[in-house]
Amino acid sequence: MQNIGAANADDAFYRYKMPKLQAKIEGRGNGIKTNIVNNVEIAKALERPPEYVLKYYGCELGAQTNFDKHSGTSIVNGAHDTRKLSELLEAFIKKYVCCYSCSNPETQIKLKKECIYLKCKACGFVSDIDPRHKLNTFILKNPPENKLKKEEQKLKKAEEERVKDAEALGEKEKKKDKKDKKDKKDKKKSKKDDGDDGNVEDNASKDEDASSSDDANDGVVWMTDTSAEAAKRRAHEQLTAATAALVTLGNMEAEQEAARRKLEREAKRAAEEEARKKDDEAKRAAEEAAEKLAAEAQAAALSSADPVVRLRSLLADKDAPTIVKELKSMTVEGGMAGKMRILYEAALGASDTKMDSVLKARKNIFAQFAQDAQNQLAQLIAMEHLFAVALPGRIKEAPYVLKMLYELDLIEEDVVLAWARKADAGRILSVPADGSRAVRKAVAQVVEWLQQQEDDDEEED
């Protein structure tokens, strides 16, 4: 056994104790789970339902839990060591067991609408539980059964019976007093009627004295009763009134103190919330300023960067019309062929993805520069520069790119044949002669295939 609460761990005379947590890991692979062997005994020592303790583990660990009410088996999915579970148990005790004022674990969970609070049996303090924890939802859906102990039930039942007997005795005494008074009056009246005229005045005066005496003592006749039963009833009524006054006064003081502390907590919470909001606003403003500066720096870098780098950045997050507009507005060496060089290097040379696949995906951009033979020839010269100068290591992809240009109707076959025959077409972009020959050699089969198609068309005509 160990003391409840880490603050009391070294107190040898502490009277609130609980069993030491025992956990056992079962299963393996995806079915691994942790069995908390003595969860029911721990919950009983804390006077809390075992489901609350188990659910708290699940909320903190982000794991599913399972509790069998018949066998008391408590399961948490996943492998969790005893040290971690003991730390979570200590946090549960601090939040949901110990009084926030005197740290005594002798508290009861009370619910009021959507609020949960702890009522301390020792000092009477009412502790508000933080409503943001996930366990609160489970507690509201599964409220605790606040059962009285056997001794408390017996005392309550005895008190109810005692009050009931006292009320019945009071009614009986009251009826008896009324009956005695009535009999006494009737007796005096009969004597008055039987007496002579001389005794009328005496009897009348006596009757008046008796009547006034009865009236004066009406309602307090029982005070003259010296029997043991009457004395017992008087003592009970006096004791009940005094006790009720003391209890009422004590409750009022406790309620006033609880209300004062609640107001202090609410004011503190409001101040913390206001400070948190200000911190969040300052943080948000700083982040927005940093993002703005980063965007401005990026824009400045792009404006001064290489045209290929700038266009590659636009390809990453802008639409086709914006990219086409930017490309057309550029002023570069080589005219349209120079602009196509930038497009081909930025789009096809940006990654290791097959160039013909990228070309097919970006067709809507390339199609904006394929309306006439001049633009088509500019694209072929840009392709020649790409494989001869920019990326000579990927020259094996040249025939696939040329074939994809033809299949996507971006290049006419007569333009391809004209480009193939003009060996110095790439001179406008400073393509070396050996590079031009290497590119034409790589696409020779595609050129021959297009030449064959053109010859077949002429024969048919």
Overview of the molecule:
Residues 175-190 have a biased composition (Basic residues). Residues 295-460 form the W2 domain. Belongs to the eIF-2-beta/eIF-5 family. Residues 148-220, 257-289 are annotated as: Disordered. Helices cover 63% and strands 7% of the residues. The relative contact order is 0.04. The protein has 17 helices and 9 strands. Mean pLDDT is 82; it is low at 210-223. A 4-stranded antiparallel β-sheet has the order 3-4-6-5, covered by helices on one side. The protein has 3 domains: 2-141, Defensin A-like (2-Layer Sandwich); 148-209; 327-460, Serine Threonine Protein Phosphatase 5, Tetratricopeptide repeat, CATH 1.25.40. It has 461 residues and is α+β, with helices and mostly antiparallel strands.
SSE string, helix = H, strand = E? EEEEHHEEHEEEHHHHHHHHHHHHHH
Class of the largest domain in CATH?
Answer: Alpha Beta
Give the end-to-end Cα distance, rounded to a whole number of Å.
104 Å
The largest sheet, given as strand count, sense and whether it forms a barrel, is: 4 strands, antiparallel
Low-confidence stretches: 210-223
- The share of residues in extended strands comes to 5-15%
Radius of gyration: 50 Å
Say what the CATH topology of the largest domain is: Defensin A-like
Strand order of the largest sheet: 3-4-6-5
Instruction: Quickly give the structural class.
Output: alpha+beta
Sum up the overall morphology in one term: rod-shaped
Mean pLDDT: 82
Gross CATH architecture of the largest domain: 2-Layer Sandwich
- Report the strand count: 9
Oligomeric organization of the protein chains: single chain
Contiguous helical run count: 17
Number of domains: 3
Q: Helix fraction? A: 55-70%
